[in-house]
Amino acid sequence: MHIPKCLGFLALACLSAAKLHPRNHKTHDYYAIHLQPDTPPQQVASALGLDYEGKLGELQDHHTFSSPRHRKHGAEGLLEDLRLRRRKRALTGAGVLDGVLWSQKQKTKPRMEKRSGPPDNGLPVAPVADAEAVAERADLARELTIEDPIFNEQWHLFNTMQLGHDINVTGVWKQGITGEGATAVMVDDGIDMYSDDLKDNYFAAGSYDFNDDNPEPKPRLGDDRHGTRCAGEIAAVKNGVCGVGVAYNAKIGGLRILSKIITDEDEATAMNYKFQDNQIYSCSWGPPDDGQSMDAPGLLIRKAMVTAVQQGRQGRGNIYVFAAGNGRGSGDNCNFDGYTNSIYTITVGGIDRKGKQTYYSEHCAAQLVVTYSSGSGDAIHTTDVGVNQCYSNHGGTSAAAPLGAGIFALAFSARPELTWRDLQHILVLTGVPINEDEDWDTTYIGRKFSHAYGYGKLDAYTIVEKAKTIDLLKPQAWYNSPWLHINHSIPQGTDGLLSSFEVTKDHLKLANFETVEHVTVTMNVQHTRRGDLSVELRSPTGLVSHLSVTRRLDEANAGYVDWTFMSVAHWGESGIGKWSVVVKDTNLNEHNGTFTDWKLTLWGECIDAANQPLLPMPTEHDDDDHTVISTSPTFVSVKPGPSETATDFPANPTDHQHRPVNAKPTAPGATSTASSTALPDAPPDEDETNTHFLPHYFPTFGVSKRTQIWIYGALAIIVLFCAGLGTYFFIQRRKRRRSEREDYEFEMLDDEDAMLNGNGAAGGKRKGRRAGELYDAFAGESDEEQLLSESEKDEEEYRDDGPASAEAGRGRSQSRQGEK
Ligand SMILES: *[C@@H]1O[C@H](CO)[C@@H](O)[C@H](O)[C@H]1NC(C)=O
Ligand SMILES: *[C@@H]1O[C@H](CO)[C@@H](O)[C@H](O)[C@H]1NC(C)=O
Ligand SMILES: *[C@@H]1O[C@H](CO)[C@@H](O)[C@H](O)[C@H]1NC(C)=O
Fold first, then answer.
1. CATH superfamily ID and name for 476-684
2. Which residue, 484, 548, 553, 776, has fewest beta-carbon neighbours within 10 Å?
């Protein structure tokens, strides 16, 4: 044994681990560059006056370069010059720079918003537990030796009050399928790998902190709790601490990206990190759910997703699970979010413990499934940050998506060879329709689909059984229609503008295309008020997807610019026949627009697997090739499409919609401002007992007036009591604080309430202060600053406060990229 060599190797391993992804967006600029395969990146670096940082994640022939802010170099001018010459196809004589195919200076973008939910403060749940179910659960716990203290509160695993309203997982566990061999990773704000409830399942090798460049993505900021709570839902260990995860023997890792500003290059690297070992990426975040944003992931991130489905998991494709978004109360819809709207993500919405629609979970044609989360007086009970800490108030679509990730881990445990499309196929076939009196369509293959619930709720047992036996799909094929040029003004009122394209048998044969899975429509529409628009897609079978809905808060004078809308409703159709889009503007007002053009893409199973190439990587030019067909639209009479309006707002709905991260909270009451024209769209009131005894903005909890009086009376007493107690403890605490200096990492966290979703916008002095802290954290002045490593402190002298804070405060620009 050569000890020195061994030590040297260890030191090297440590060094390379520490230097995995060193980025400092305060002091350095970064450039992502796509090179010809044979172009040496070091030579490109010296030609541009930049430093070479290494390969860009898993993206083929993509590299990252950097420069300290203070260094003078001509890189930007040179790259711009190259771009122009490439466009003119006049590229000669630039030497090694001829090998530059594409470049992008990295812009820091505001943090993505966590989709943790509206708090639901454990209000009394009317029904009492069913004695038989309680006994059954006790037997099960004995049989599986589950001794975790909050297992009995984890109604999403076994609901003893609303029977049947759980993920139906126990029959899977009884077969010994508990997640062995499966690995999920929380792409979030960290994971507490030292929690007793997580540490035995923690997967260190698949984890990384991209915010603080550290191999351990542990929570470092006061509100870094979201990732840990989500991780507990997936894979909390069965060990007598807190509760258990859905896949309690699966491995769980963390990729920390939500706690600081990052760039597309960081995100693309994170989304492919250790993608042979990390099977499922659970993502409970996205662009703001404010009913106004229309943002899609940038090109590098879209390339990372295509790379993941083609190469990750030994070529079977990684799974991206995304929370549908909490913007329903703001009239938002998940087709306006480029992550949930992507064919590469499984979009999961939330229902409550009674199986009811929640006021927050967004609808859309791209939503595949729903599962349980907060509402009807309860929330998800899970692990929290700390050695032995539990949390009983986890909610929003943030809490739904990880339950999906846990169930998918069980499916991979049972059948590791499922591809990313097989898993989606299983969900199409196994979704359980709920609330069938609401708006459901029967699809071509006889499944039920709803824009509110996708194919229905997840049933772990049915999913795992289907996973065991389903025939694997042949590789993915696609068919692109030409661009259909319309250039016609959009009528207002009851007429819509319809444009059709006939897909023939020969078209599809030529494309080696057999059966439809996803359908995307890329379109350009100009309009002086984007929120007035809505779009239907009508398939040859007559099934209608509402690709876009009116959004009462969306005032953008922007329309849709090369935006790609996606629907999963047409899964199983042949694709042959006439596909139509109908663009509508049902709001009679001074705002009008023009339908410019559109393009249909069918994605699905190929005919001949031996003859099916992989999809080329997306490029910036995917929408340039307008092999245009000019067509005349026709007028059809239309009804206003659905628009998202929740009836059951919580006391202060605006509090929960978004954190004050990259958008100021809307003024109170903004969400109740209905648009001037009538939108006959409110979902049916669920309960006739739902009459109000207080003004309408107080929730009725779906109970009678008498019970409401009782609840509010009890609440008032509790509030008074807590206020008294709070004052007492506050004074005590002040005394204590003066006497001893507290030195705890999560010092800011005074109590659970202050944490309500890290939202901080809620009323009350303390919450206001917290919001300030979050803002500061963002601008670079947080408590986290105090945890800066020495090396970072050294770099502080180069710090350029101006641009960093300015960039931090700026909202993310309207993005034009859709899914290709
Ligand atoms: C739930 O699981 C049980 C087995 O534990 C199974 O018999 C049943 O079909 C599953 N699904 C539903 C919807 O009950
Ligand atoms: C669109 O139509 C208008 C007239 O309605 C015309 O002036 C314009 O040139 C057309 N644009 C294109 C790109 O065809
Ligand atoms: C929109 O309305 C304005 C004023 O009423 C009119 O001049 C314009 O031509 C209209 N544009 C379209 C595309 O209909």
1. Galactose-binding domain-like (2.60.120.260)
2. 776
